[in-house]
Amino acid sequence: GESVGLHLPTLSVQEGDNSIINCAYSNSASDYFIWYKQESGKGPQFIIDIRSNMDKRQGQRVTVLLNKTVKHLSLQIAATQPGDSAVYFCAENGAGGFKTIFGAGTRLFVKA
Amino acid sequence: NAGVMQNPRHLVRRRGQEARLRCSPMKGHSHVYWYRQLPEEGLKFMVYLQKENIIDESGMPKERFSAEFPKEGPSILRIQQVVRGDSAAYFCASSPGGQSDTQYFGPGTRLTVL
Questions:
Q1: Where are the beta strands (DSSP E) in A1-112?
Q2: What digits encode the pLDDT tens for the residues A17-71?
Q3: Distance (Å) from the C-alpha of residue A40 to the closest C-alpha of chain B?
C-alpha cells in the first residue's frame, strides 16, 4: 500500500548549522511531493514542492531533493534559525488519487 | 487575500452532541480537503470536495461523519453523536485546482469531547 515515512522522528541542530530532514515514500507512481512546516497550535504551512520530473528544487534557504531510484525525499534548511523549530511533514500527492498522504513528521529543535 | 479560514478555532462538546466545523477556502479556490490530526501524529485525509460534490471520501468514517461544500457558503464537516475518540484537530485545506495542486491549510479547529 501507499505510505510516506520519515527516517528521523526528531532532529536537534545548532543555530546557524544546516538541517537535513529525510523522508521515504513507497508509491513509485507518485508524481508530486510537498514539504510542510507546522508550528505548535497552527496549521501546516507550505514550504516547497517538487514534481517527479525534477530531482532538485531550491527556495529561500530551503532545498528539496528527490531521488526516485530509492524513493527518497529530503528537505535541506540552510543556516537554521530558532524560528525554524517546528514539525516538518513530507507529503505525497498524485498517482491517480486525490488525497495527500502525510508522513509522521520530524520535530526540529534549533539550539541557540 | 485572506487565507483559509476555519471556525470555531476551539470547540468543546459533550458525548452525544453534534459538532459542526466550518471552512472557508481561499478566494478563487474551489477545492476543499478535510484532515484530522491526533497529537504528535501526522494528518490523515478524510474527504475531498468541490462545490456541491464529494469527490473522494475514502478517509471518512462510515458513520456519524459527513461533509458538504454548498454552492454558497463554507464547507461544513459535521460529526454527529460525538465520542471521546473524536477529540482531535481538524484541518481544512483548499486548492485552486484538484489533484497535484498545492493545498493551503487553515489554522484548524480543535475539538474536545468531554
A1: 4-5, 10-14, 19-25, 32-38, 45-51, 56-58, 62-67, 72-77, 86-93, 101-102, 106-111
A2: 999 999 998 788 888 899 999 998 899 999 999 999 999 999 999 999 999 999 9
A3: 10
